[in-house]
Amino acid sequence: MRALTELTDAELAAAVQHHGGQPFQGRQVSHWVWKHGVTDFAAMRNVPARLRQDLATAFTVRSTQVAKRDLADDGTQKLLLALADGETIECVLIPDGDRTTLCVSTQVGCPVACVFCASGLFGVRRNLTAGEIAEQVLVARAELPADRSITNLVVMGMGEPMLNLDALLPALQRIHAADGIGMGARRITVSTSGYPRQMERFAAADPSYNLAVSLHAADDTLRKQLVPTASTPVREIVAAAHRYFGQKGREVTYEVVLLEGRNDRPQDAEAMVETLGALPCTVNLIPWNPVEEIAAQRGLRRPGTARVDAFAELLRSGGLKVTVRRQRGADRSAACGQLRLRTQTSA
Asked: 90, 132, 160, 255: which one is catalytic?
């Protein structure tokens, strides 16, 4: 059966009327799904019992459920979600002071195949639907205690968001809309490994979300080693990101996963400064969260604090704004795609 989370407002109104309800009751059902996060038709108290029963024969409320939870010592919680077709995805809750950030996925697996990432080890299985993307917010929200709420959303889990814009854009609209989950656009960030044509389409969407670009290296040859599927020159990706800034007025963040001896050398910092130094942007350095299977096979290592700090200082001395992401959830399958990988390989 189709889930209510997959229906547009017009489709839900039509479904309600088909089952004998009134148009306004479609809005009531929608509020129960998105604002209140109910998972059972019986909880929709102001909807007539007969209508609830009829809807329950044709629809489910959601299509996903939590298959596994991993809670780290620092409070980071990774959720493995089972989809209706048996596939699995991940989303992650990251508490930090008064902030709680949720990281969501857009695909089952990933086609980008970054050498350091567990998400792409088995390729991409399929795109997520708009409902499956938005449901991750509902599921994660229900995991939080009453005194905490999701303050920020980052679309940088499993998958390449720009390759699933047909589902991502309506999902974000549902997450942002006042009649949906109601999260401000300035609190939503979408990360891409760099697809200029799709980035232009993303820039044309309303409202204006934040954009992050997973760059990893400013040199095309080195970037190709780290991101084997990369076919677009760095200069074209950066130009597209700068056009996004010009169109939306939102400063772009460039993400760099640092690997010891691979892309954390002085010459790598110099190339980054040469490429980005004149642009309004922030470089977010992410020391690699080791994945045992990848580290052993590919000889990758997480750089020590001194190397990370030295790299950051070289960027700052070149005029760049720099942040360094501290490791979260290190004791519980911290890296993206790792919980799904461990579950699949142990099955």
From this structure: 90
